[in-house]
Design brief:
Layout: E1 2-4, E2 13-15, H1 18-69, H2 76-95, H3 98-118, H4 126-134, H5 139-142, H6 145-175, H7 178-214
Antiparallel strand pairs: 1-2
């Protein structure tokens, strides 16, 4: 486990090993990316667009109900996702088109790509804020010039990755049958995001080792 010495007044920072990070991330990828598409696709095959939309809503609200029954706190992001999927479902059911159901999240990816790219050179880029949510980084690590360059670099990386994600998704959505969109988009984006995440992790470890050598 990588350890970074800190001043006497601060705690020791430990970066979890890769298997630990994967055990943390993989269930969330499956729950957030793969299963929702599988559920929508199953509903689409059985009962058309309406069936897919209803199945997707049942998945999201089922997740909320499960947490409530188990006495777990429902994160604000989950509640926001439930509200957004409800709006998307109403639009899709009224229009009878699955395209509208998937258009909003695709536009959201465009916005995320723009945010990553636009904040690459500010003091606290968006990618740093995301990292702070995922890994408890000490202040002296965050403010180190080496790490600030890391965050700027990764902002550009993730901006380009998300832009590619959005362009591919939009092209598939507007030019291919919805079944093709679901299978191809989910597969390609999963590989794209996983590869980018592994590269980011490798870059992060390299920066931490450089900080250790300079300590």
């Amino acid at each position: 486990m990588t350890m970074l010495a800190t001043p006497a007044a601060g705690p020791v920072f430990e970066l979890p090993k890769l298997p630990s990070l994967l055990r943390h991330a993989v269930p969330r990828i499956v729950e957030g990316m793969i299963l929702p598409v599988a559920v929508f696709y199953a509903g689409l095959v059985v009962a058309g667009v309406a069936g897919g939309v209803v199945a997707a809503m049942a998945w999201v609200y089922g997740g909320v109900a499960y947490r409530l029954v188990r006495g777990r706190l429902v994160p604000g992001s989950v509640l926001l996702a439930a509200g957004m999927v409800s709006v998307r479902a109403v639009l899709a059911l009224l229009s009878g088109s699955a395209v509208l159901f998937f258009l909003q999240p695709t536009l959201g990816v465009f916005c995320a790509a723009t945010a990553f790219l636009a904040t690459a050179r500010v003091r606290r880029p968006l990618v740093r804020r995301v990292a702070e949510d995922l890994v408890p980084l000490p202040a002296h690590v965050l403010e180190n010039p080496l790490m600030r360059r890391f965050f700027a670099r990764q902002s550009l990386v993730w901006g380009c990755v998300q832009l590619g994600n959005a362009l591919l998704s939009l092209w598939l959505l507007l030019s291919q049958p919805i079944q093709t969109y679901l299978v191809v988009r989910t597969s390609v984006v999963a590989v794209l995001l996983t590869g980018a995440a592994l590269l980011t992790l490798a870059d992060f470890r390299r920066c931490l080792r450089a900080l250790e050598r300079g300590a």
